Amino acid sequence: MDATAQAAAPADAAAQQAQLARMAAQLDELVEENRRARERWEVLDELVRDAAPVARQAMGTMTDRLDALQRRGYVEFVGSGIGVVDRIVGAFGREDVEALGENVVLMLQTLREMTQPEVLGLLRRTVELAHEPTGPTVEPPSLLALAGRMRRPEIRHGLDRLLRLVEGMSSPHAATHPEEERA
Predict the structure, then answer these.
(1) What is the dihedral sign for C-alpha 3, 9, 10, 15?
(2) How far apart are CA 183 and CA 179, in angstroms?
(3) Are the beta carbons of 69 and 75 closer than 8 angstroms?
(4) Contact 174, 181 (CB under 8 A)
(5) What angle do CA 71, 77, 80 make, to 5 degrees?
(6) Of 6, 44, 86, 134, which alpha carbon lies 20 to 30 A from 106's?
(7) Phi/psi of residue 93, each to 5°?
(8) Are 156 and 164 in contact (CB under 8 A)?
(9) Given this model, what pLDDT does residue 183 score?
(10) Cα–Cα distance between 27 and 94 in angstroms, integer?
(11) What gap in Å lies between CA 60 and CA 157, rounded to an integer?
(12) What residues of the chain score a pLDDT lower than 50?
């Protein structure tokens, strides 16, 4: 061997030794990471073993509940409701929803008033009267018969209510500010 080769040999050996040391350090890191991963896996495995019975019971309870809801018709009802919501979304724009938002309190107040027993009774009686048979076979009452009915106080009260309703519907102020008219 010549002198330069002899001088390069220890340098190569030192470089190889440094490379082996780096590889050993990397192997140590890999072994340590593998140990930590195994510990995490064991913790996860233990958690799964502990949680599995609870998850099975929860799944069974949920399945039973969904089955009961389906038997009672809730699933079909919700499906139909989604169809209704879809039609509403398709039929109304953002401006319509904003207008609804501006009037929702008045609408709910009106709905609350409409659900009072006396109003619902009046609506029911109106529907019953609307379904009574009328037509060419039923003879309309004579003017004298109608005038005779006017003597009854309940008829006069009813006509008074009807006239007030017509007056209220013809007032432009009543349509925009019904709460002020009551005051």
Answers:
(1) positive
(2) 7
(3) yes
(4) yes
(5) 140
(6) 86
(7) -100, -175
(8) no
(9) 45
(10) 64
(11) 63
(12) 181-183
* Residue at token pair 């009574």: 132
User: What is the predicted pLDDT for the residue at 6?
Assistant: 65
**Rounded Cα distance, 26 and 32, in Å:** 10
Backbone angles phi, psi at 151, to 5 degrees: -70, -25
Instruction: Give the model's pLDDT for residue 171.
Output: 82
- Calpha distance 166→156 (Å, rounded): 15
50 and 44 in contact (C-beta within 8 Å)?
Answer: no
Residue-wise burial string across 39-52, b where 16 or more C-beta atoms lie within 10 A, e elsewhere: eeeeeeeeeeeeee
Coil, strand or helix: which one is 53?
helix
pLDDT at 5: 59
